[in-house]
Amino acid sequence: SKKRYDISFVDIEMTGMDGFDTILEAKKYQPDGLFVILTTHVEMSRKGYVVNAFRYIDKQQLQELEEAIQSSKVVLERNRKIDINVIGVGPRRIALKNIIYIETEKHYVVIHTYKESIKCKNRMQEIESMLPDNSFSRCHNAYIVNLDKISHIDNSRAYLVNGNNIEIAQRKIWQVRKAYFNRQYECANK
Predict the structure, then answer these.
(1) If 0-12 CB within 10 Å is exposed, 13-18 middle and 19+ buried, where does residue 109 land?
(2) Which of 9, 61, 120, 168 sits CB 3.0–4.6 Å from 84 for a disulfide?
(3) Is residue 1 very low, low, confident or very high in pLDDT (cuts 50, 70, 90)?
(4) Res 75: pLDDT
(5) In this structure, are strands 165-167 and 157-160 parallel, antiparallel, or unpaired?
(6) Do 157 and 180 contact (CB within 8 A), yes or no?
(7) Angle (nearest 5°) at CA 12 between 10 and 16
């Protein structure tokens, strides 16, 4: 149908195209979609790796569906994209998982990713409202940090996975630490 879905549950045995070929075809239209294979053919589970299935669940173990759905929420959140207005380019979509941190620079906002720094016209408050509270934190008037991109925190700075570090406002240090540890706990238990 070429429709986009966040998560799809696929059986291996289907009339015409099997589940593995269906996943490969669907990934052309929804590359960030998650695919859960439901089957009684557990001996074919290795082929699930070939199509990069999110989960491979034996139909005799359907209680595993709840875990798959809960874990998919974390992954889908990371794959979510926001729309920004890039200076000199115009509208652009950027995946949350690619953002390391965001900062104000004079009258603009700069979004830092692994590959580039993107200067945009959006206001800091506008971008902050688009971000999920459980994975981003406003650690300073000038910074919003992706909690998944922090390697560690000391008394005044967040050290990031790309080697940079950013200041944490003294009045926000405990709030940022709590958000960071809550995020680590949340991701470890999904």
Answers:
(1) buried
(2) 120
(3) low
(4) 81
(5) antiparallel
(6) no
(7) 100
Cα torsion at 80, 160, 143, 76 (round to 10°)?
Answer: 10
**Positive or negative CA dihedral for 75, 80, 86, 90?**
positive
pLDDT, tens digit (0-9, with 9 covering 90-100), for 93-102: 999 999 999 9
Per-residue pLDDT reduced to its tens digit, 104-145:
998 899 999 999 999 999 999 999 999 988 899 999 999 999
Q: How far apart are CA 33 and CA 110, in angstroms?
A: 28
Residue pLDDT, tens place only, 49-65: 788 888 888 888 888 88
Tokens at residue 119, please?
């200067």
Residue carrying structure tokens 């759905």? 69
Q: What is the DSSP string of 86-116?
A: ETTTEEEEEEGGGEEEEEEETTEEEEEESS-
Residue with tokens 């070929």: 21
For residue 34, give the 3-state DSSP assignment. Answer: strand
CA distance 56 to 39: 8
Question: Could you give the maximum distance between any two Cα atoms of the chain, in Å?
Answer: 62
Encoded tokens for 39: 């089957």
pLDDT tens for 159-177 read 999 999 999 999 999 999 9
Q: Cα–Cα distance between 3 and 161 in angstroms, integer?
A: 36
Look up residue 30 and give its amino acid. Q
